[in-house]
Amino acid sequence: MGGVQMGVIYIEVKNSLFQKISEGVYKAGDKIPSERDLSDEYHVSRMTARQAVSLLVTEGVVYREKGKGTFVSSKQFSQNNVKSFTQTLKEQGYDPTTIMLEFSNVHSLREISAIMELPYDAQYIKMKRLRLGNGVPIALETVYLPRDKYSGLKEEDIGQSLYNTLEKGYGYVVGRVSNEIDACISNRMMMKLFEVQKPVALLKLVGISYTIDGDKLFYEESYYRSDLYKYQVDIYKRK
Question: Measured between alpha carbons, how far is 74 from 88 in angstroms, rounded to an integer?
Fold first, then answer.
């Protein structure tokens, strides 16, 4: 009986802390009260306070730094279906912006051409963009678009959403995205773009976007800050 009561209590403490974080009482980067202070505030044992905080750590809401305390994690933007970066952030109440770093013509990209099933000397429009949410750099995207497919495309034609540009300008609708997801650490160039002082963990996404009919639209290599962005994958059992 006592164990059940303790379980209920630590969940109540966890929910109360989560509500305070959601309401902005504790903001991203803020240090939350120590286990001793929480036990005094909620009139519970330190073990119960520790369990409540540990659950928040498991859920990624807060994180511990040895010798310093427990801090509120940064907001993570979540993507779990075929939506553009722009649409994903807008739906979660954030203002997406883009900085174009490169818009150029390239060719003789043998590996990419092999994946895209195009001649080895095919020409591409290379587009490198820094994607931001509420002014915070979140992703570095590099996209290769077959030039023959997007004849006449200019830098000024690209708005916030590439998906929207391709649909309105060329009639192509992205119906499926096939990505390989890997983990890596930011290099010096990325640290500068992401405005961080030390290397951060990144999600690396490499893959192809297709139409509903399976036509390959473009090849992409992107890096997302893992502390700000998460990519959900649903796996279903084959019948």
Answer: 17
**Can you tell me which residue has the tokens 């497919």?**
149
Query: How far apart are the C-alpha atoms of 130 and 151, rounded to whole Å?
Result: 24
Which residues partner with 31 through β-bridges?
Answer: 71
Pick from 124, 164, 127: nearest CA to 148 = 124
Identify the structural domains of the chain with CATH numbers, from first to last: 2-72 (1.10.10.10), 77-231 (3.40.1410.10)
**Cross-strand partners of 129:** 100, 141
Interstrand relation of 123-133 and 69-72 (parallel, antiparallel or unpaired): unpaired
Main-chain phi, psi angles of 138, to 5 degrees = -120, -40
pLDDT digits (tens, 9 = 90+) for 217-226: 999 999 999 8
Alpha helices by DSSP H, the chain? 2-22, 35-42, 46-58, 85-91, 110-116, 162-170, 188-194
pTM over 0.70: no
Per the listing, tokens 């006592």 go with 2
- Give residue-wise pLDDT tens across range 189-229: 999 999 988 898 999 999 899 887 889 999 999 999 988 77
